[in-house]
Fold each of these.
Amino acid sequence: QSVLTQPPSVSAAPGQKVTVSCSGSSSNIQHNYVCWYQQLPGTAPRLLIYETNKRPSGIPDRFSGSKSGTSATLGITGLQTGDEADYYCGTWDGADYVFGTGTKVTVL
Amino acid sequence: QVQLQQSGPQLVQPSQILSLTCAISGDSVSNNGAAWNWIRQSPSRGLEWLGRAYYRSEWHIDYASFVKSRISIIPDTSKNQFSLQLNSVTPEDTAVYYCARDAPVGDDYLDFWAQGTLVTVSS
């Protein structure tokens, strides 16, 4: 099982805000950058956030990332139906790159 | 624009070798800043990083601890591609396998992914 724990699911109405948590430890999140990946149904993961709080070109500023201690958070504001997807955090844990357990975001 | 194209068999028999190749366009496998990764995903185990190859004046290969004893990642500069070999497979190795690039600038992040290959281990 993954060393990064995420809630299985979160949901909100269109236009609202959701946050996705990623809980780790001193061996991973606390001392490393965190990434977030979005996976739409039937597709490969896509980079959403890198170096904890930076967005690649083309990712809207509705998506944000932050970190505090051994936990990281992905925020999505102005929720849209197209945001329905699975979201994964990722970081290094020693010599291994590890992913979170994944969170399904549902737009009500 | 970087593109990654995977190829390889989708059905492998138990105890045999799983072999996949990732062809790179728009970048070089020898890029002195990038790294070339294999990741897999299954419903029971989620996303799992398997390892990576990268060139920094010489080749470096890193493997995930849980699979280190039976994996090889092999870069091929003549074909601008890299390959995955996983030995002694079992049904537990059934998964969608992805290759992905670790960006050449900044800290480690996987900025380009291939489409994925579902590999089933079954007799």
Amino acid sequence: QVQLQESGPGLVKPSEILSLTCSVSGDSVTRGDYYWSWIRQPAGKGLEWIGRLYTGGSTDYNPSLKSRVTISVDASKNLFSLTVKSVTAADTATYYCARERDLGFEGNWFDPWGQGTLVVVSS
Amino acid sequence: DIQMTQSPSSLSASVGDRVAFTCRASQFISNYLNWYQQKPGKAPKLLIYTASKLQNGVPSRFSGSASGTEFTLSITSLQPEDFATYYCQQSYTAPRTFGQGTKVEIK
């Protein structure tokens, strides 16, 4: 059974860097046919896709966040990470990591998801 | 970016009711549309992928359909555990985008 678990500080000061990791068990972050993704959700609001990392290290980012976001992988620890720089209160959200299945013409979908971690940006 | 618009934003229903709600894409996305269920304080859970395929373990009272750029999630015989918020998501292109959600509440 594949499981994802987010971890990182729950409080970040404005203008500083938000860093989260997603530990993966039951699968390998180097396995093909999958993207490893980050999605966030402000309290009481909808879901926003942040970006994804593919086997081999290639990445895609949401253009709305691209200038501030980096997603990277540590294959030796079987985890991937999210970094958001120059954070503001608007970055306060629950952050989820998720695996995106890529079956080409058969479609892509997010499953499973981590349980989520709340990050508050405040001084 | 492809905009996903869900309607209604909320609905009230009773246990045993049949409910349906829609998601409209701002442009062609083929059948690359997924549905998720989210309960308070929990991560979203995949219900339907590629418009109409039921994820393993999801009850058969859930079904999805598509007509052009409009997609529908139907729940027959609503159960107490089905009261939640439902999100659609397009996987046609990046950036991936989600609808704003439909909240199913108890009448």
